[in-house]
Design goal:
The protein has about 200 residues and is mainly alpha-helical. Helix content is about 70%, strand content about 0%.
């Protein structure tokens, strides 16, 4: 964790701003804008990229991925520029929690993978790139999106330590724990061998 230099008021303010940014449900917004129906009634009902892809629109899924990652990165970069590294981590954490537990959707949000990657890229871009490559490699080998997500999240703290960003490691561990919690049903299916593969209907 970074040295806490900002006041409690500043940290709380940026935590609130981060949550607000993170809680914007871009998956729902994009699918409605593309005329793809109610995402809550499609596939798993999740608001993330994987479920948007189940609408059949790769463009909508790609845009959702960029926006969900972008809102996490935006929270970090704004807080860092205007307040400092401690505020950046507070804003990033709350943006991630805002995505996973948005008040507007009765705290039933996404699983946090795109936002996690966006945060890592903004907090420490070498760590972020390593996490993205880990996701790609694990997903390519397994052909299972959730395997890529879980492997990437699990590797975040290790990459932070290996690449010399120790101040990011604790936050990466916290984010990974939430990603695993949000993927509990996927983990059950992975163990049972019933988790759908990428492209499988």
């Amino acid at each position: 964790m970074p040295v806490l230099e900002s006041s409690a008021v500043v940290l709380i303010l940026w935590a609130a701003i981060g949550y607000g940014l993170g809680s914007v449900p871009f998956g729902l917004v994009v699918t409605k804008a593309f005329g793809l129906g109610n995402l809550r009634e499609i596939g798993s009902g999740n608001i993330g990229t994987t479920n948007v892809l189940r609408t059949g629109s790769k463009a909508a899924a790609a845009l959702t991925l960029l926006l969900d990652g972008g809102k996490g990165a935006a929270a970090v970069l704004l807080a860092r520029f205007l307040a400092g590294e401690d505020a950046a981590q507070a804003a990033g954490l709350m943006a991630f929690l805002g995505h996973c537990f948005p008040v507007w959707l009765r705290f039933k949000g996404g699983k946090g993978v795109a936002t996690f990657l966006g945060l890592m890229l903004a907090l420490a871009w070498p760590v972020g790139i390593a996490c993205c490559l880990t996701w790609l490699a694990a997903a390519a080998v397994s052909r299972i999106s959730s395997m890529g997500a879980l492997t990437s999240a699990a590797s975040g703290a290790a990459w932070a330590l290996l690449l010399g960003y120790q101040q990011v490691a604790v936050l990466a561990l916290l984010l990974a724990a939430v990603v695993f919690i949000r993927h509990s049903a996927n983990i059950t299916r992975l163990r049972a061998g019933t988790e759908p593969r990428i492209g499988q209907k």
